[in-house]
Specification:
- The chain is α/β, with parallel strands linked by helices and 156 residues long.
- It is built from six helices and seven strands.
- It has one domain: Flavodoxin domain (Rossmann fold).
- Helix 1 links the parallel strand 1 and strand 2.
- It is globular, with a radius of gyration of 14 Å.
- Bound molecules: flavin mononucleotide (FMN).
Length: 156
């Protein structure tokens, strides 16, 4: 079963998650930090690599996970916690990273490593700049990319 899991602070990743889950007809779940923080607080925490915060989320049923989350400096603590807690263990994961545009590649590669370290298997990723979100979601390309990633990397 396929499932979309997202964390979003300003709504971009949530928008991507909603459109993907409706397009692929799959369940959607949210990662929520227990404590809401202001932008300056998150910004400070985002500079600390590997830091987590307490989060809640619904039980994950899917074995193919589309994980949508934002690019935050060096670290997005709610997502880091979610991964470090072993929620993606044994699951195949496609990451969609929303960003403003500043150095998203190395960040995404680091998250792929973190997922693998905690037992998940990354089948692919896509970085989406906030200003391109609507155009990306209007075309079929991203949905096809997700489907292809899951169908071509089976069994390892
Ligand atoms: C704390 C914080 C740090 C951010 N750091 C970066 C960054 O380093 N590079 C970048 O391109 N965008 C950065 N952004 C912008 C977000 O990645 C971008 O606005 C994204 O679309 C937000 O996704 P969301 O609406 O799902 O939260 C940052 C945003 C926040 C709140």
């Amino acid at each position: 079963m396929r499932e979309v899991i997202y964390f979003s602070y300003t709504g971009t990743s949530e928008k991507i998650a909603r459109v993907i889950s409706s397009h692929l007809n799959c369940r959607m779940g949210q990662i929520k930090p227990i404590r809401n923080r202001s932008y300056p607080e998150w910004l400070i925490l985002s500079f600390i690599p590997g830091l987590g915060v307490k989060v809640v989320h619904e039980g994950i049923e899917g074995h193919e996970i589309i994980l949508c989350f934002p690019k935050w400096t060096f670290n997005c603590p709610p997502v880091t916690s979610f991964i470090k807690s072993g929620n993606l263990k044994g699951r195949r994961v496609f990451m969609i990273v929303a960003c403003g545009g500043w150095r998203p590649e190395s960040y995404t590669v680091r998250y792929a490593g973190l997922i693998e370290k905690h037992g998940g298997h990354v089948v692919g990723w896509r970085i989406v700049k906030k200003k391109h979100v609507d155009a990306v979601l209007e075309s079929n390309e991203l949905f096809e990319e997700v489907k292809n990633a899951f169908s071509t990397v089976k069994g390892d």
